[in-house]
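stage 2 :: seqdesign
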């Protein structure tokens, strides 16, 4: 991530590949990491742990969490740890 006085230079890779999402989904036992719902690969969304919008990389090894559509939409550009704690408070 590189910030200047004028703009953030973002990683040109925006989305995780299907293979990256599959590997992470297997690590997560087929569950959304936030709400725990079972996910099929075609419904799984590769979310960024640290927001891409803030200039963080789309790196499957360090910045990927697989979420359902609802959780990913609710997270928006919030850091994932902050969102997950907020989600737990709502349950």
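stage 2 :: out
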């Amino acid at each position: 991530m590189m910030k200047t006085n004028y703009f953030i230079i973002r990683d040109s890779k925006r989305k995780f590949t299907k293979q990256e999402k599959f590997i992470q989904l297997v690590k997560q036992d087929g569950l959304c990491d936030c709400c725990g719902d079972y996910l099929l690969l075609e419904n799984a969304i590769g979310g960024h742990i640290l927001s891409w919008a803030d200039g963080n990389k789309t790196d499957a090894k360090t910045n990927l969490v697989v979420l359902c559509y609802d959780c990913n939409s609710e997270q928006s550009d919030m850091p994932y740890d902050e969102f997950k704690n907020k989600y737990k408070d709502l349950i």
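stage 3 :: structure notes
- Strands lie at 2-3, 8-9, 45-48, 64-67.
- The helical segments are 18-27, 69-75, 80-90.
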